[in-house]
């Protein structure tokens, strides 16, 4: 399977691409895409790394699986293609942004605009079979993305990790709290949000406050 990751990530990840588990993972993904409908499109599998370059990375948001419905997943966690109806979790993210920042509810669900500002939108699993949530879990993706988080923690300083929900919070053990900031809350999914675990976390204003205190440009959410 042919894949492309922006050159800024090569030094950090090139060794990983050569490991047996990753080669097996790529062979699995290649078979899946040849035999089934899978998401996102092949050329978007590594979009998180292609829109957010290593040297620009300031914020990391961790998701779990890509959306598994038609035309939704575009390789960035929580993001959908422009013009696609916003899934429930994204609706709640946008509601919190509007409430937290006092801005209008964002119309475009494509979060490339965040990624281009240095927000790494990283799913733990980067591919999925259509209409089968979790179908590509435990094939090697999690080992790869955990390594990305670990290496970011080692190589960078002052990153802000937004860990939403129980799954993402487990990634905290991979991150040095001496070098980085970790903000946690419930997941933006309706189940969690409606129980009071999401709304009011003010993660977007808190992130910008940390960035500006460190002399870095705020994110235009």
TrEMBL record:
Which PROSITE patterns does this one have? U_DNA_GLYCOSYLASE
Protein name, per record: Uracil-DNA glycosylase
Q: Which gene encodes it?
A: ung
Tell me where in or outside the cell this protein is found: Cytoplasm
What top-tier enzyme class does this entry carry? hydrolase
- Asked if the record carries the keyword Hydrolase, the reply is yes
Q: Which reaction does it catalyse?
A: Hydrolyzes single-stranded DNA or mismatched double-stranded DNA and polynucleotides, releasing free uracil
The EC number(s) this enzyme carries: 3.2.2.27
The job of this chain, per UniProt, is described as:
Excises uracil residues from the DNA which can arise as a result of misincorporation of dUMP residues by DNA polymerase or due to deamination of cytosine.
Family of this protein: Belongs to the uracil-DNA glycosylase (UDG) superfamily. UNG family.
